[in-house]
Design brief:
The chain is an alpha/beta fold. The strands form three sheets. Strands 2-1-6-5-7 form a five-stranded parallel β-sheet. The chain folds into two domains: about 1-150, SPOUT methyltransferase, trefoil knot domain (Alpha/beta knot, 3-Layer(aba) Sandwich); about 165-224, Trp Operon Repressor, Chain A, CATH 1.10.1270.20. Helix content is about 30%, strand content about 20%. The chain starts with a strand and ends in a 6-residue tail after the last helix.
């Protein structure tokens, strides 16, 4: 998979993209991540990427021209399956969407900033708009990093045990069950006997029942 990220503050990605699973995926050749600074696609001395909004009001708006020039250049080099805009008013990111995106070959992620991008960019280029929650960040860079992590970990060969991702929360619209490791007893709290039984069928049944109970209690909306 190839992911091209278009942003104003590309340095934000240095940490998230150089550690843990994403770092491993890049080294394994499972994913390529290319950062594109919008200021490199401006043609004035001030590297301007924003301007005042028509109609007035507080806040600046990201200009059409640098974004369009960057996307046009990328599209001239390869075909993209999705061009995603990270924005608070996009569809809320769900595990189902992560699963779908992990199967694609090439995607572009555009990070919003200020009051967002000129609507014409959304109308002409964007194929999917995603939000990571009902709150507002300073920019879309951190949201894009979250999206990348949620997609890349699902690519076959990235995780040491590929079945691990299949048992994550939300994969079956259920939250994950409790997990335990050594020691078998800690400060008077013991690991449930069923997990020590060595019976895979009973353990699976217990985990499913626990997932169901936790989901009913914490996220009943997932069961509708």
């Amino acid at each position: 998979m190839r992911i091209d990220i278009i942003a104003i503050h590309t340095n934000i990605f240095k940490g998230p993209l150089s550690e843990s699973i994403i770092k491993r995926a890049i080294h394994k050749g499972k994913v390529e991540i290319h950062l594109h600074n919008l200021r490199d696609y401006t043609h004035d001395n001030y590297k301007t990427v924003d301007d005042y909004a028509y109609g007035g009001g507080a806040g600046m708006v990201m200009l059409c021209e640098p974004i369009a020039e960057c996307i046009d250049k990328l599209k001239s080099e390869r075909k993209y399956d999705e061009i995603i805009y990270m924005t608070p008013d996009g569809e809320t990111l769900k595990q189902k969407t992560c699963n779908q995106l992990s199967l694609l070959e090439n995607i572009i992620i555009l990070c919003g900033h200020y009051k967002g991008v000129d609507q014409r960019i959304r109308d002409i280029y964007i194929t999917k708009e995603i939000s990571i929650g009902d709150y507002v960040l300073t920019g879309g860079e951190l949201a894009a990093a979250v999206l990348c992590d949620s997609i890349i970990r699902l690519i076959p060969g990235v995780l040491g045990d590929e079945s691990s991702a299949l048992s994550d929360s939300f994969q079956d619209n259920l939250l994950a069950p409790p997990v335990y490791t050594r020691p078998a007893e800690f400060r008077g709290k013991k690991v449930p006997d069923i997990l020590l039984s060595g019976n895979p069928k009973l353990i699976d049944e217990w985990r499913y029942e626990q997932s169901l109970e936790i989901t009913k209690k914490r996220r009943p909306d997932l069961l509708k």
